Amino acid sequence: MISPRFSKIASWVYLAALYGFIFLPVAVLVLFSFQDGRLPVPPFNGVTLKWYGEVFADSRLMSALGNSLMVAIGSSLVACVLGFCAAYGLARYILPASRLQRGLLVAPMTVSYLIIALGLLSTFNWLGVSLSLWTVGIGHVVINLPLCFAIIYASMGDHQKNIERAARDLGAAEWQVMTQISAPMLMPSILAAFFLSVTFSWDEFIIAFLLSRFDVTLPVEIWSMLRSGLNPKTNAVGSVVFLVSVALLLILELIVFRRTAKK
């Protein structure tokens, strides 16, 4: 018979090991971004903000940062709009082969990003489309659309259908029901899908690497820096990427999930 005290201690040890396994690499990354030396390796020689200053003074890094934000926000907006339209159509209308359509919409979630990127690269080459941030954005729409569709579709219930039916009875056109009734009711799910899409697009590398040429996103620029070896500057850039990702998730928690819980 295992004593309650032993179970409690084992639980805390397990939690410490679990969170240590997840967050220790990030903690080391952030710690050595403040390294007062040329290499981000022990021993820790002191604290300096020099490398963060170099990051924000680097025009190529700032350009890549702007590209990442632009692609992430733009592709996430498109993915959310398309995901909402697809979810509304499949949830509110009887369409031919609707189960097959739902399966095809979520299928990219089960496919490797590498396979998707290679397929898109072949398609763009066949169509004669030059690689740019536009092609990266299209690739990110492809990977984020299934996520947006799944989140929004799962939140569409019968109580919303009754409200939509009442709006039609009062003379609302279908586009008014969709934009002024359904979309506001589903806004927490739409915002959740948007912020998660931005998070995934923000630090995605494989698609951004294969589908870009001269204008690159921040993960691709970081990869270029790593080819010349490790230094605290790369740690500082990685810390900035991590900080933005955490900030997006905190906004998602504060704006969407807590508001939904209160309701």
Helix-strand blueprint:
Elements: H1 4-32, H2 50-57, H3 59-92, H4 98-106, H5 113-127, H6 133-154, H7 158-169, H8 174-185, H9 187-202, H10 206-210, H11 218-226, H12 232-262
Between the first and last Cα atoms, what is the distance in angstroms? Answer: 44 Å
Q: What is the residue-mean pLDDT, rounded to a whole number?
A: 82
Tell the overall outline: globular
Question: What is the level 1 CATH name?
Answer: Mainly Alpha
Number of domains: 1
Strand content range:
under 5%
Radius of gyration: 23 Å
Proportion of residues in helical segments: over 70%
Number of helices: 12
Counted beta strands: 0
Stretches where pLDDT falls below 50 for ≥5 residues? none
By CATH's scheme, which homologous superfamily applies?
Answer: MetI-like
- Find the structural class using helix and strand composition: mainly alpha
CATH topology: MetI-like fold
Level-2 CATH architecture? Orthogonal Bundle
